[in-house]
Write a structure and sequence with these properties.
Blueprint lengths: L9 H15 L4 H8 L3 H14 L19 H14 L5 H11 L7 H7 L15 H13 L1
Helix pairs in contact: 1-2, 2-3
């Protein structure tokens, strides 16, 4: 990303537009609260952050931070070494179970094990209720190619 660029979600961009409307005097905070679907009190907090920090104040503060649940790199490397040495032919679920036994004091998940450590993993092929029909349609098109 270039210097001075700010990555924002759709919701944050909508908030930015609403705050610009308030700043220019074309809208009141009460109207902006309705546009952003926030309470008036929360809108006042957003407005205060916008006035003090600008558009950067509207961006979620957790963006770009490392997760608190992230495994340290040395443990990932050890897990990968143990996998390569002992569990090479295992599938992702069995490998995750075996590695969890090897590293008993840590709580591993299958995704952390396989994706985070570079181990083989299965793609998630489940469909949610929300987008089930759309994802099934996309999957059927991709199988035709």
């Amino acid at each position: 990303m270039a210097e001075g660029e700010l990555k924002m979600s759709r919701r944050e961009r909508q908030r930015l537009l609403a705050m610009h409307e308030v700043q220019s005097g074309r809208s009141l905070l009460k109207e902006a609260a309705g546009q952003m679907r926030l309470s008036y009190r929360q809108t006042k907090r957003v407005w205060r952050r916008f006035r003090t920090r600008g558009a950067e104040g509207l961006v979620h503060e957790g963006r770009g931070r490392v997760s608190n649940r992230r495994l340290p790199e040395d443990i990932k490397a050890r897990a990968l070494a143990v996998y390569e040495k002992n569990y090479k032919g295992y599938g992702p679920t069995k490998a995750a179970e075996k590695l969890a036994q090897s590293f008993m004091n840590l709580r591993f998940t299958q995704k952390q094990e396989t994706v985070g450590c570079g181990l083989p993993h299965h793609a998630d092929t489940r469909t949610s209720r929300r987008n089930g029909a759309a994802s099934r349609t996309l999957r059927s098109f991709s199988q035709v190619e």
